[in-house]
Amino acid sequence: MDTSDARFLDGQLLIAMPGMGDPRFERSVIFVCAHSAEGAMGLIVNKPAQELRFASLLKQLEIEATADVAGIGVHFGGPVEHGRGFVLHSAEYDAEGASLKVDPRFAMTATLDVLQDMARGAGPMRALLALGYAGWGPGQLEGEIQANGWLTAAADPDLVFGTRDTDKWEAALRSISIDPRLLSAGGGRA
After folding, report:
1. How far lies 190's CA from each of 18, 63, 151, 187, in Å?
2. Model pTM greater than 0.85?
3. What string of DSSP letters covers 98-144?
4. Which of 4, 41, 140, 152 is the S-S candidate for 136 at Cβ 3.0 to 4.6 Å?
5. What's the number of CA atoms in the CB half-sphere (13 Å) around residue 164?
6. 8-state DSSP, 17
7. Distance between CA atoms of 100 and 94, rounded to whole angstroms?
8. Cα–Cα distance, 190 to 180 (Å, whole number)
9. Closest C-alpha among 122, 123, 84, 127 to residue 105
């Protein structure tokens, strides 16, 4: 029996509208990891942490890298608990029950197991590491969407994991047939 509720946005993307009012989320694309009547949690997938690389983070955590980790970047996942790491990844990987299976294509793990596995080449096939997360209280995200702060789109693994960070916002908009050049910072109601 499917107990999911179509009103909830687990596994969807939030695309920041121009003029949303919060500079931390300007041109952000957020993957929604969990959404319920109690609130929502997601990770910004297109804002790299400029000064931090995965190899440096492993060194800080005293995790030895035996695999090539040079290409793995670290992202600013959101303004909440920005010292805490989250790995959004392909769903084939499961850290012994510590992974949140978001949908058949995506999962999220927030334990050191996934970093240790990635460091030795045994981690998920596709992954994005984020420090911090975006969080909303009950009804808050719904209110922001209603106030034209966010658009929603289906999450595509190629967009989330395979598109350059600088191109993800426009690619997400185009995935719902919106030309970013035609967006206005002002909203209206009919």
Report:
1. 19, 55, 17, 10
2. yes
3. -EEE-SSSEEEE-SHHHHHHHHTT-S-SSEEEEEEEEEE-TTHHHHH
4. 140
5. 2
6. P
7. 8
8. 22
9. 127
| Confidence (pLDDT) at 104 | 95
Single-letter amino acid code for the residue at 33: C
**Rounded to the nearest 10 degrees, how much is the dihedral formed by the CA atoms of 136, 10, 29, 134?**
30
- Cβ neighbours of residue 133 closer than 8 Å, sequence gap 6 or more: 33, 41, 42, 43, 77, 78, 80, 81, 84, 86
Q: What is the pLDDT of residue 2?
A: 38
Q: Residue 8: name the closest of 28, 26, 33, 25 by CA.
A: 33
Q: What 3-state class would DSSP assign to 11?
A: coil
C-alpha to C-alpha distance for 70 and 45, rounded to whole angstroms: 19
Tokens standing for residue 151: 């658009």
Spatial distance between the Cα atoms of 31 and 121, rounded to a whole number of angstroms: 24
Cβ-based neighbours of 171, under 8 Å, separated by 6 or more: 159, 163
Q: Rounded CA gap, 126 and 63, in Å?
A: 20
